[in-house]
Write a sequence for this structure.
């Protein structure tokens, strides 16, 4: 019934969809197996994409030729560029999306790729021979063979849902969990552990009084995520969100449910994310705060369903209900369904190679929450990289590995495989030491050429990037050539409290001043407007960023170079750590397990401290 | 590759005859090796950190009566099993015992190997290990003091305190950046600025201490120059005290590299080209003399220009001093022969002149003046003193980054870019003490702030 596939992808969430699309677009024959064809690309949590650091990841996925950015742009109902007031490294695109449209668009996209096949079934086990994966066995008992297998099981592996004292097996509410895979992998020698995450109640929007909440509108300009000319939502069409707050009354009611809380009764063993705590966790840990912010997000164009961001909880449903009714605007609220916590298996990602292939079983790849991450964006980019590298392995080509200085994706995978994680891992800009280089505006300049070289980014994508690059160069050229006289510009400078100039000044130098944009200069310098007026806004913005922040960009490049020193020190593959009694026991075990390729990588392994690295240097004859 | 499994042995006290000699063994076999050449209580049955009296034997021959000190791993200097044998200090006995140890499995330690093992076993960090090297090489009480301070972790401790403050600081900035959408209170800018000011002050002090540190560690090079017959030899001999100067002229020393040292209040001064002065080549043949003077001046930290108060031309003196001044060196102008009736008194001369008589107690004044010049009059070795050029260079980068942070705030630069300068700052601190991970910042954030929707 089935041919031997190049790539079998298990699971069709954000990781699975990206993996399937990437491998297939590069030429592999792909089978996407999902338990339910109706839930492909579900947004299981809030109906939003991007955000700080995460938005940069979506941009990078798009730059490489991935799909999430396009899908997001096509289903956006509100767009905001966060952190506009900060440096350009912090600008982060974020969108609210129509949950259903997002999933449908993904499915249509996958269906439009001829070499993606679909199969609705649950995978119960892997076919493995001689430490190499050969295929999967399904719940229906069918054996399907593939050269590579990518597991993207999300929260489904032995998933257990908790609401108050109730608990039941499930991968998402109303969906069955998956059993068998964990047990089989443990049999092969894999380590596994439990993580926990949670989600808030969903509310009937018709029952809310929005007049008691603050409105949050979208931006006046919709930048979007894809570097391709995707038709985006018009600014005036955007839907708005609302902000409201809990109060000490709400907290008191929530506390009445603590004795039935699965978290406090110890029924949940897995760690939850510290930065996305449940509301009960927040009032418990930060008792001094008398209110917490709630974001009220619409779920789409044609639904009244509302998502209450900030109210994730696993307290008994009646306590959730009573407490939420004390929140301004929620006095008469009706529930569609309560919030819940879910516990699931993951495999500590130190068991992976840089390609996301497992160290123990050849051609088996893991991506997404199975690796201990959280977030759609984190999952999607792992799916993309696993899809790329599964395909590269099939065609026997060098793997594609992004460095920490190349992309947030590189930071994420490097962190995962070297440090592992014992709570759901989310990306932050502070995890990236080179965030001034890893900006949302230059993802294409950083990555599209690579994406094109490996056959993922289309010719069109490359051409658009090259065109932009050319435009940026000539804009910078103009800025460095065109001077402005004091008579022309001083009135403007005085009007914005910037010191006037006494002689002719290069426009690029004026651009370095805080508070002066390229647009301001164009509006006040006739020579500049005549030479730059025909360039597109994005190219102008790019040239502006490159000019304005050059000092900082250079400083960061210098740090990259300094750090590269350690990255260049290769540790021989056969290096015997167990004989190095000088290393701390923990460092010795971790090094032996992870087997870093370079001293730089070794220095980032948790439990390996600087003195261990110095010791390694001594042993390596430095 | 380096193997730590062997046991090393070395004489821990200076070689040569002495009242007592201490032989130190370190390694897994240290105890069993000594047991093999020992008559007394069974060493391996004894508790750590104990002393035992007994005899070292070779077969049936008694070599010496000794005391052994036992330190079991990891509570020893090297972190390994360590045994120290205190024997009588005869060269014969010491060598015999070392040979016995070697015959029973020990290998002779390479220079610094005990310290290297201590470092490799995590007993010392890099700055401490460097301090051990300094300690061994220290030739003056000030150098000794500085090295001991660093060995105890004084320097790492100072940097750690600054580093922790900065991590906390940058964590607060990161909070504003990564969680700007959250309802969190942001930290107070003026506190930030005073923290930066404070760190700058501390780093600047450490950098300033390097001049002193260098002085303490390397000694200060002093060149005495001047025209013929102004009394350089007399002054030199007076400075060094005559007898010692004669001793250093024992035949066989390479004359050109003779360098005499002078210890003033715990600081070492190296007098350059004293051979030149002694041979009178600095003044006998004019051309060679000038060349040597110039060379000595270039090498020196402090130049002492000596002239004869009874015989000089004021304009020429002025020109010479200006020339020395242009070289950028610290200098002292000394007029000699102030005891003679014929000496001229200079009034309204633009440079400070020290008048003395090399024959009388003049050398004592000069000692004090040189010390003053070298230390700016301050010699407080209680605090941390930087003695390592690598540390000093990194600290200068730290300071520059701190200045960048400050000007970033002043110019209202976005905080992520300010954070970049803080990260550079931490990177350079890390070059001295070790790396910082991003996790440190996030841990701080999560422990202090309520984050998360």
């Amino acid at each position: 019934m089935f041919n031997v596939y190049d790539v079998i992808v298990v699971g069709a969430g954000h990781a699975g969809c990206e993996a399937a699309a990437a491998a297939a677009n590069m030429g592999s024959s792909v089978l996407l197996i999902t338990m339910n064809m109706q839930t492909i690309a579900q947004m299981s949590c809030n109906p939003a994409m991007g955000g700080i650091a995460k938005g940069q990841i979506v941009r990078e996925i798009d730059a490489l030729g991935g799909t999430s950015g396009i899908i997001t742009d096509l289903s956006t109902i509100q767009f905001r560029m966060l952190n506009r007031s900060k440096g350009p490294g912090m600008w982060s695109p974020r969108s609210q999306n129509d949950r259903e449209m997002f999933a449908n668009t993904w499915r249509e996209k996958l269906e439009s790729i001829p070499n993606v096949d679909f199969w609705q079934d649950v995978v119960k086990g892997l076919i493995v021979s001689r430490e190499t994966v050969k295929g999967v066995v399904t719940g229906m008992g069918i054996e399907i063979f593939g050269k590579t297998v990518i597991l993207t099981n999300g929260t489904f592996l032995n998933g257990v849902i908790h609401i108050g004292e109730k608990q039941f097996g499930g991968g998402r509410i109303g969906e069955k969990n998956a059993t068998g895979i964990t047990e089989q992998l443990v049999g092969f020698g894999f380590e596994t552990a439990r993580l926990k995450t949670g989600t808030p109640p969903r509310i009937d929007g018709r029952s809310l009084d929005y007049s008691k909440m603050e409105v949050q509108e979208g931006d006046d300009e919709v930048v979007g995520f894809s570097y391709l000319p995707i038709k985006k939502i018009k600014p005036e069409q955007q839907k708005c969100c609302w902000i409201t707050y809990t109060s000490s009354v709400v907290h008191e009611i929530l506390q009445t449910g603590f004795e039935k809380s699965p978290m406090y009764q110890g029924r949940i063993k897995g760690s939850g994310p510290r930065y996305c705590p449940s509301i009960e966790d927040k009032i418990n840990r930060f008792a001094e705060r008398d209110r917490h912010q709630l974001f009220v997000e619409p779920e789409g164009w044609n639904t009244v369903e509302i998502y209450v961001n900030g109210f994730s909880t696993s307290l008994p449903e009646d306590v959730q209900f009573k407490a939420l009714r004390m929140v301004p605007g929620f006095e008469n609220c009706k529930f569609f369904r309560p919030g819940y916590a879910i516990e699931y298996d993951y495999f500590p990602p130190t068991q992976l190679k840089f390609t996301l292939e497992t160290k123990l079983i050849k051609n088996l790849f893991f991506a997404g929450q199975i690796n201990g991450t959280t977030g759609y964006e984190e999952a999607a980019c792992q799916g993309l990289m696993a899809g790329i590298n599964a395909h590269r392995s099939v065609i026997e080509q060098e793997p594609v590995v992004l460095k920490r200085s190349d992309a947030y994706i590189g930071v994420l995978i490097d962190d995962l495989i070297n440090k592992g994680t014992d709570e759901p891992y989310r990306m932050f800009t502070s995890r990236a030491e080179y965030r001034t280089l890893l900006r949302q505006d230059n993802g294409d300049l950083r990555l599209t050429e690579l994406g094109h070289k490996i056959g993922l980014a289309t010719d069109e994508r490359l051409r658009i990037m090259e065109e932009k690059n050319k435009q940026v160069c000539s804009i910078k050229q103009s800025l460095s050539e065109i001077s402005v006289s004091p008579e022309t510009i001083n009135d403007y400078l005085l009007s914005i409290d910037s010191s006037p100039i006494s002689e002719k000044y290069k426009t690029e130098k004026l651009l370095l001043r805080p508070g002066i944009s390229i647009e301001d200069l164009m509006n006040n310098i006739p020579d500049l407007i005549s030479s730059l007026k025909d360039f597109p806004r994005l190219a102008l913005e790019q040239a502006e960023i490159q000019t304005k922040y050059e000092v900082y960009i250079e400083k960061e490049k210098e740090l990259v170079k300094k750090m590269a020193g350690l990255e260049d020190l290769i540790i021989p593959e056969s290096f015997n750590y167990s004989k190095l009694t000088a290393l701390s026991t923990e460092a010795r075990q971790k090094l032996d397990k992870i087997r870093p390729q370079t001293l730089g990588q070794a220095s980032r392994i948790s439990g390996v401290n600087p003195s261990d690295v110095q010791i390694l240097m001594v042993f390596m004859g430095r | 590759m380096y193997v730590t499994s062997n046991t090393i042995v070395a004489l821990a006290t200076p070689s040569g005859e002495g009242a007592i000699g201490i032989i130190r063994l370190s390694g897994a076999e240290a105890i069993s090796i000594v047991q093999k050449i020992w008559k007394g209580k069974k060493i391996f049955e004894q508790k750590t950190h104990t002393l035992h009296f007994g005899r070292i034997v070779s077969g049936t021959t008694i070599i010496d009566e000794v005391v052994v000190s036992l330190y079991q791993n990891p509570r020893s200097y090297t972190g390994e099993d360590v045994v120290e044998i205190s024997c009588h200090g005869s060269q014969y006995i010491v060598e015999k015992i070392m040979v016995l140890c070697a015959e029973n499995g020990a290998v002779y330690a390479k220079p610094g190997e005990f310290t290297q093992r201590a470092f490799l076993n995590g007993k010392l960090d890099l700055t401490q290990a460097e301090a051990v090297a300094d300690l061994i090489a220290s030739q003056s009480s000030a150098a000794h003091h500085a090295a001991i301070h660093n060995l105890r972790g004084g320097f790492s401790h100072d940097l750690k305190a600054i580093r922790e403050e900065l991590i906390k600081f940058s964590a607060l900035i990161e909070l504003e950046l990564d969680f700007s959408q959250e309802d969190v209170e942001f930290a107070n800018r003026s506190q930030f600025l005073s923290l930066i000011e404070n760190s700058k002050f501390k780093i600047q002090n450490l950098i300033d201490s390097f001049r002193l540190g260098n002085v303490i560690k390397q000694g200060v090079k002093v060149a005495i120059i001047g025209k013929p017959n102004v009394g350089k030899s007399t002054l030199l001999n007076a400075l060094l005290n005559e007898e010692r100067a004669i001793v250093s002229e024992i035949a066989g020393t390479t004359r050109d590299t003779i360098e005499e040292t002078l210890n003033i209040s715990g600081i070492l001064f190296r007098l350059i080209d004293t051979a030149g002065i002694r041979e009178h080549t600095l003044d006998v043949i004019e051309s060679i003399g000038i060349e040597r003077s110039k060379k000595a001046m270039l090498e020196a930290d402090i130049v002492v220009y000596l002239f004869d108060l009874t015989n000089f031309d004021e304009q020429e003196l002025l020109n010479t001093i200006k020339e020395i001044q242009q070289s950028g060196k610290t200098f002292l102008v000394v007029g000699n022969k102030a005891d003679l009736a014929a000496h001229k008194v200079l009034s309204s001369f633009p440079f400070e002149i020290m008048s003395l008589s090399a024959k009388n107690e003049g050398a004592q004044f000069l000692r004090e003046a040189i010390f003053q010049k070298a230390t700016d009059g301050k010699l407080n070795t209680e605090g941390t003193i930087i003695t390592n050029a690598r540390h000093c260079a990194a600290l200068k980068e730290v300071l520059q980054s701190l200045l960048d942070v400050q000007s970033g705030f002043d110019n209202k630069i976005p905080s992520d870019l300010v954070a970049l300068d803080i990260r550079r700052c931490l990177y350079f601190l890390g070059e001295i003490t070790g790396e910082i991970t991003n996790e440190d910042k996030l841990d701080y954030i999560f422990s202090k702030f309520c984050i998360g929707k």
Chain B touches chain A through 48 residues (CB under 8 Å).
